[in-house]
Specification:
With 655 residues, the protein is α/β, with parallel strands linked by helices. It is built from 23 helices and 18 strands. The strands form 3 sheets. An 8-stranded mixed β-sheet has the order 1-2-11-10-7-3-4-6, sandwiched between helices. A 7-stranded mixed β-sheet has the order 14-13-12-15-16-18-17, with helices on both faces. The C terminus is likely disordered. The structure holds fructose -6-phosphate (F6R).
Length: 655
Amino acid sequence: MTGPSTATPSRFEHVPVTVYPTSAEGSRAVAREIAAFIRAPRPGNRPAVLGLATGSTPLSLYAELVRMHREEALSFANVITFNLDEYYPMQPEDPRSYRHFMRVHLFDHIDIPPGNAQVPDGSVPAAALDAHCAEYEKKIQAAGGIGFQILGIGRTGHIGFNEPGSARRSRTRMVNLDSITRRDASEEFGGEENTPRRAITMGVKTILDARRIVLMAWGQHKAEIVRAAAEGPVASQVTASFLQEHDQIQFAVDAAAAGALTRYRTPWLIGALGDQGLEWDPHMVRRAIIWLSQMRRKAVLKLTDDDYNEAGLQDLLRIHGPAYGVNLAGFYQLQHTITGWPGGRDPKRTRPGDAPVRPLRAASAAVFPKRVLVVAPHPDDDVIGMGGTLCRLVEHGHEVHIAYQVSGSNAVSDEALMRALRFAGDAGLASPASAEKLRSMCAAHESAGSLPETPEIAHWKGLVRRQEVLAAARVCGVPSGRLHFLDLPFYHTGPGRRRQLGDEDGAIMRELLGGVRPHLIFAAGDLDDPHGTHRLCLRALHDALAGSSGEPWVRECELWLYRGAWSEWSADEIDLAVPLSPQEVLRRRRAIFCHETQKDMALFLGDDRREFWERSEDRSRRLAETYNALGLAEYEAIEAFKRFSPDEFLRDLPL
Ligand code: F6R
């Protein structure tokens, strides 16, 4: 995609949705519209009234507004702002408050008069809350109403903190937060139990009263909820769907967040592909066939002309029909994704008549053994996402390196660390000086119920996870000398989704790549993790590859993306499918079990309560069933990967 694309009006999207290639471009476009709104002449020089949001979504918008203030003389002197919400209870100076967020990202860098920047006050006593909320509404009215409202969208479909069930007529009030919203926020508060349960929020009606509304959404983890809000029925279960009733609403989304819209997921339902600037290339054919096979519950090779016609795929039949020919084309594509030789086969042991090593590129298939680099954002993503393939690669004799990008210390509970420290103390392994320190830490932990968040504690928590990695690597047969603990500094730069990559992260990644010079890279391509770390880790790899693009090995290198704990590729996205035997599934389970701190009480399980080994097994078994239902062989489990050629990867990583 090269420029923004607005929907051709279709019966599917009930709001205007503009899709930008990247979130940066989308944010710049929204910033330009806001700047024009602020600069527009108003009768009597009345102030421009903005409704503002917090969270990760508007960060690049605020950065752009600050830039425009500095470089393009955009003044906020005659602007009044009202923020959507604030946690309750919450002191305004608390670094986790939305008031603080707004100061750090916007208010402190522009010329808005301090009294003009309104945020609900999370510190008012409970008895005064109703009056405070009514007062907030009055202030909005007195300012002339909100002229331009920006919104993010939560994974529950909330706007502001209007969680599922909020009424269309609701006004500013106190609300209980949904458990998914609290889990998404939990990293900032050091775990779910410390995350506020309540918040003050503008109501749905307060938002709908704004004269212009732009809802922004970036990233694949928002794709399903964007689809529900834009294409689903208007219902209080997805409060963003109420926006369909506003006549000046605009959704601004990036390509990843748009991915579930009908025009991208099943464009043939909208009309002939040619009319949409699309074509029936092999990938589109495969997608349509898998979709049809799953919808009709029939193996691909059993689909008939009637199946195609009745499902609206006449266009495909017309161009590539009859059905059996199309079926075969799709079937072969699927079959060619499967290989038990993810790094290629040893040419010395290849006999005439052996199946070709697909889907590796011919040039790379000839190199044996290969240097393989598995890049894991957290210390357990490698075994959760591709533990079976990892063991296979080692067994085939490849030189397998694993790089762990962040220490994972944030997900180690205080209890887990105290267990390790107490063991060292009880076993007499601590020096007299450290034994004394240990005693006072134990006492402090017992009295306060938690440990302070110091760099030293974070370092020790990281070491606990390092031991787990070493144990898991032994299960997989990877020598400790090929494990690279990168401990990228960005991980410690702030809470949750507000972290940013720095130069040092890039330098560390480039040094790793230059040291290993891999023929194959396997990286975590799931951009759905609740804390956003995977996205930044993939971005760090992307930038490092871009920085090394002059090196000959980069052009030769093949790049595969695996999925971590949060989601699986859909069958039509898969380029490499590695079948696993029942024994390999058990071995992967043993490797995942080594990550003891992430069992049972893991801090960041997300909204799926299954443990990571269960997710990994369910997911890979389900994928094997999916392949089988499509008419391919019946395997115990499959691990799946999507190809990213370096060129494509360097061009448009969907972040
Ligand atoms: C923030 C707010 C919320 C967020 C939503 C998305 O003021 O009201 O509705 O916009 O939770 O959050 P992010 O942008 O962090 O994904």
